[in-house]
Structures are given as C-alpha cells and as structure tokens.
Amino acid sequence: MYGLQIDRHAHIMRTEVRVHYDLNAARRPVNLSLNEDLVRKLRKVTDNLSAQVERLLSAYLAEEEAKRLDAEARLARAVEGWNAFGERVGSFADEHSTL
User: Fold this and answer.
1) Is the pLDDT of residue 11 over 60?
2) Of 3, 59, 78, 80, which cross-links 17 as Cys (Cβ 3.0–4.6 Å)?
3) What is the pTM of this model?
4) Residues with Cβ < 8 Å from 17, sequence gap 6 or more?
5) Residue 16 pLDDT > 80, yes or no?
6) How far apart are CA 11 and CA 48, in angstroms?
7) Which string of DSSP letters, residue by residue, matches the chain?
C-alpha cells in the first residue's frame, strides 16, 4: 500500500506505508458523529469520505503502534541497563540484608 507524504519543499512523493490491518476483511458500516460543517466541506473535496476516514485511521493506527513499539524498546533498554548495573555493582540491599 502506498501513501502520500509532503516534504519540506512541498513536492509530493510516494512512500511505502506498512498496512497494520487486513485489507481483505469485510467492510462494516459504523456510526460516527461528525461536525456537520466539516462533512459538508469534505464532500466538496472527496467523493469517498469512507475511504478518506479509513486512510486517516490507518495512519493513526500505524503511528500509535510505532509509539507503543518505541516505548517497549525504551523499557527493554532500561531494564537491560539496570540489570547490567546490578550485575556489575550488586544491590545496595544485599549489604544490609539480615537474611
């Protein structure tokens, strides 16, 4: 799947976008409450509002999944760092344990 991205010079270029959902899944009607004026103006610039909403939601999903993966990677690096520190210098509690 491809998406459009605008660079700093306002040139449009094609970039590959990973799809994070099944493109072949059945379509399902849903109810959304949207600003009436916004919808009226959108109808002037697109004849397929559903496709535009789906594209925007797909981009949002990809962004949120990337954030989650980044947070997981940061956490894993912090745990690795803490474990390495503990192996190198030991635990402060070990010096004061009565067990």
Assistant:
1) no
2) 3
3) 0.65
4) 1, 2, 3, 58, 59, 62
5) no
6) 24
7) -EEEEE-TT--EEEEE----S-TTSPP--------HHHHHHHHHH-S-HHHHHHHHHHHHHHHHHHHHHHHHHHHHHHHHHHHHHHHHH--GGGGG---
